[in-house]
Amino acid sequence: MQEQTIPDRLKISPFLIFYVIMAMQIGLGALDYQRIIAKDAGYDAWISIVFAGTCLHIIVWMIYKIAKIVNGDIVTAHMYVAGNLIGKVLSFPFIFYFLLHSLASLRTLFEILQVWIFPTLNLFWFSLGYMLLSMYVVFGGLRTVVGIAFFSLVLPAFLVFTFFPNLLYSNFESLLPIFDHSVKDLIKGSFHMSLPFIGFEVVLFLYPFIKESQKSEKWAHLGLLATTFLYTILAILTFAFFSEGQLQKVMWPTLMMWKIFKLSFVERFEFIGIAFWNLIILPNVCISIWIGSRLVKRIFKIRQKKGVYLLIIAQLGMITFIHTREEINLLNSLMAKVGFAFTMLYIPLLFIAVYIVKKVKKK
Amino acid sequence: MKKGWFQNKNGQGDTEQKNATQTLAKSKDFTKTCYYNQKTNIDFCLTYLTTLVDEKIIEQSILSSLLAGDFHSINDIKKIMPLYDVQICNDPSKIEENLCSGYVLLTIETEEKNYGLIAAKKEIVRALSPPEVEISVVGPKEAFVESIATNLNLIRRKLPVKELVIEEFTIGRLSKTKIAILHIEGITNQENINTVRQRLKDIEFDDISDSSYIVQIISDNSNSPFPQLLDTERPDRVAAVLAEGMIAICVDGSPQVLITPTTLVNFFSSFEDYYLNWIIASFFRLLRMFAVTFSILITPLYVAVLTYHYEIIPHDLLSTLITSRRIVPFPPILEAITLELTIELLREAGARLPTKVGQTIGIVGGIVIGTASVEAGLTSNILLILVALAALASFTTPVYKMSNTIRLLRFPFLLFAQLWGLVGIVFCVCIVLTHLIRLTSLGRPFLDPFYPPRWQDLKDSLLMLPFKERSMRPQFLRTENPYRFSKKKASVKKDIDE
């Protein structure tokens, strides 16, 4: 089934999957998920995060099973199940999935920049700059893309410590009583976690590019675990810091919490946080563009560089049409729904299909 | 002279050779003298370029033995000549090349095919001197000189083992520069050596006058502001990196030896670090890293904060800042660029002028211009302090070429800071970061050990752990023998009072 073998020098070490997954997950929705999940599940919402995280481990396990059986990425899996032509047709929508992912990440970033720092930021020129930067990254190949993912986690890591001063003003009793909400509410909360959690599914696309691919499964699970842990802690900190009513009125709770930290030469830390958010979003965009262009290459058999140009032009064209808060909200909720459908519904289906085909082929 | 100055008449390449000799004969220093040995009744001629040969050798060794010795044919010269480099050959194409590198040509009327080539080079060698760029307080005080023979001797003495292999060849159509590749057999990765050899042999440039030419020609990415080959003038450093599994390239006529493959951290480690206690050395390295970050970012941060983000500064500090630039009529970016350029001017003027004048210019420029511009209200004194500190910090980089890069990097950062404030600075960080990730040295990642993250190599990067911990050679070199010593022996755990 493997169409082309990828030379070893282009592959990435298995443990880097840890960073890829974390970098891809943290980005969309990470600044405001506390508010959204608390709407349904109240201050029990942290249970929703843990529950969602646990479910995703099963999906990751399925992803690795699929990849192992077909020995390749999702396009190979589709061809394995449905043959060459239909396999390609089935893979086609995923180009748009990743286009949407990078569009949503980018537009959300610009929204924050516009609200917080530069109200007059010219959307087109900044997007153009950002796209040229992403192009430079993607042209460096997957190793460079993963490198950016790595640094986007390591360099801003110090920002995590800037949340600790909030403990002085926190009241953890507001989390009590635990299990105050119905199971239905908690599951609704978990559903809303899909936007901050999606991104781990990239493994299904990157699989052929991982050295000793099966060894990376451990790292994929660890990455998912680390994200779940980070989100849970951050949610608990947020819930202890804001009252339930106030939280609903705060647009980006994560940014608001940065405001508390203060040094003798820096007063408003969220400015530094937002500046670094640029770097945190960059791998989201770059990985998306890389995968999207890779899919274009595999489906239409054209050079990957052309795919990159196509995606970038499409994105530049679309981003200027999204102006209002409602439109951005719509974009994000669309992304959340599509992401949920892909990860929680489509992947199990594909898993079952691959399994059946495997049984049939054996006979 | 009409028939040509050597007696080979039957060679195929005769006309070409004649042309070559006619060209040679145009030079004033071309000499051909004929002599007669009375003992054996033989006429012989010596041909050489006077500027290249040592006349003492000709007088005392060559002529005396040829005139008075038992000399019948060319083949006798090996017996009678008290010199070590005496060749007898019959290939006319070698003559020109050897004449141009200080050989004396011996021809006899009776023998047409054979001639002798006797080395009588005039060696002009500068005496060893202490290093001038990579100065160290502790450690050896000898530096490379311009002669490749001396340099190889210095390295050989530090590594007196049979595994040290020296390959030599000549490149450059005009300069005929001798180049030596050094590596240690059994440690250095063969693939790396092949790459270096191939790249050097592919050099087409006609005049290679220094090792820096080679750096620019064989770099993986010559459009990068970052140097990808390290040049050093310290034999101890070369010996140390050879033992780690790197490759050294000596170039004749250049007092700098090249080291490859390198990583970014190599450019920030002074070799003196290795002579110091690991705690002190680690502190110095961290200090240098801080200095570099500070040097690149501080003026852009000033511009970004004062142009866009007043809110980020606490109230007390803000009033100090505002007071200092209350009467300055320019926007921060103009102020910063002017000051940065002034500092660069001072540096460039200091570098071009003779040492003593240069120092004076530095003092005049630094103190007079600085103070005057603040008093005239053209710049704020806080920015003046920052710019001066940034310049100072950029000089802490131990490798000269890297410190140039760092000073240059400040300007794009300034532009982005003006464009998009803090966001612009992070944007520019992303660009530099991507560039560094993409950069390779001899195909090995330049950003190792940070990316790809390699724990083993981190032990000698930002920090420098004690010798006990550094049992492995750098992983990015893919050495054939990764262990410097067996670690088990070194780590015997002791209990109290044992």
Automatic annotation (TrEMBL), chain A:
Q: Where does the protein end up? A: Membrane
Report the Pfam families cross-referenced here.
Spore_permease
**Keyword entries, A-Z:** Germination, Membrane, Transmembrane, Transmembrane helix, Transport
**Segments traversing the membrane:** 12-33, 45-67, 79-100, 112-133, 145-169, 189-210, 222-242, 271-296, 308-324, 336-357
Superkingdom, taxonomy of origin:
Bacteria
| Span of the signal peptide | none
Q: Which InterPro entries does the record cross-reference, listed alphabetically? A: Spore_GerAB (IPR004761)
In the bilayer, the protein is annotated as: Multi-pass membrane protein
The UniProt entry's coiled-coil ranges are none
Q: Which family does it belong to?
A: Belongs to the amino acid-polyamine-organocation (APC) superfamily. Spore germination protein (SGP) (TC 2.A.3.9) family.
Query: Entry's PANTHER family?
Result: SPORE GERMINATION PROTEIN A2 (PTHR34975)
User: Could you identify this protein by its name?
Assistant: Spore germination protein (Amino acid permease)
Originating species: Peribacillus huizhouensis
Q: Give the taxonomic lineage as stored in the record.
A: Bacteria, Bacillati, Bacillota, Bacilli, Bacillales
Automatic annotation (TrEMBL), chain B:
Please provide the record's keywords in A-Z order. Membrane, Transmembrane, Transmembrane helix
Q: Where is the composition biased (Polar residues)?
A: 7-20
Start and end residues of each stretch annotated as Disordered: 1-20
Q: Does the keyword Membrane apply?
A: yes
Q: How does it sit in the membrane?
A: Multi-pass membrane protein
Membrane-crossing residues?
286-310, 382-400, 412-437
Q: Which InterPro entries match?
A: Spore_Ger, UPF0353/GerABKA_families
**Intracellular or extracellular location(s):** Cell membrane; Membrane
Q: What is its main location?
A: membrane
PANTHER family, A to Z: LEUCINE ZIPPER PROTEIN 4, SPORE GERMINATION PROTEIN
Family, according to the entry, reads as follows: Belongs to the GerABKA family.
- Protein known as: Spore germination protein
